[in-house]
Design a protein that fits this description.
alpha+beta, 2 domains, 6 strands, elongated
Length: 143
Amino acid sequence: MKQSNLLTSGAMASPRNAPRRETVTVTKLGKYGHVQWVHQLVCGHSVIRKRKSPTGVLGCIKCIDAETFEEMSQSLAIPVESPYDDGLSGAELEASKLRAILAGRFKVLPEQVDVVIRSNQWGEMVVDSATISLTRRQLKVLR
């Protein structure tokens, strides 16, 4: 509780206030004058310091960040309808996905992609074709 009250008050988390974790491994990175020590902690997080820890026990700020993220995500978890759940038929849904794929692949706006839906011989709606309208500048880039 102390940690969550500390974080909700807006104070910055510091290693002194963070939960203490034991060090599993310590790795030395860099050359003389630019050495960094990477401490791998029991919790799975790593802490980078300029000096090696003499005790082997460090405060893990990332555990606090992970805890606050979980609390925040649980408080914000509100069921939301799917963006495609607005009464579209299967063919219209497929057309909107195809429009997004083509717009991304050709690096154009989705409004420049026209996807045609037609009914086949059995009366089912299917995607028939797609047309991409390019500006003069976009055509020059393709050459």
